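Running this now, will post back.
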Amino acid sequence: MNLPPKVTERAFARLAEINEGGETRPLRVAVSGGGCSGFQYDIRLDDPESDDLVLEGGGQRVVVDPVSLPYLAGAVIDFSDELIGARFVIDNPNASSSCGCGTSFSI
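Update: finished.
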């Protein structure tokens, strides 16, 4: 059994800021084919589906679909606020290489 992805408190806190004052929507983290390295992350606000894995924290939810789940086993979903920009980032132990854009990887 692979470990499910983890979501940091910082990522949940940023999601709470995004959802503040409006409808609270989960953050979907998905993996799709494409990108510079073969796979790419698709991170967006989305409604949960019945077969999603739901990760909860701080009153917020992150959802992962069953197809993406094996690619995200043991990954850490975080929020990075650096000079180059603020974004959700994924530290993925399954990725053998990634490219500079930070959204594409290979296995």
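The two ends are 19 Å apart (CA to CA). More later if anyone needs it.
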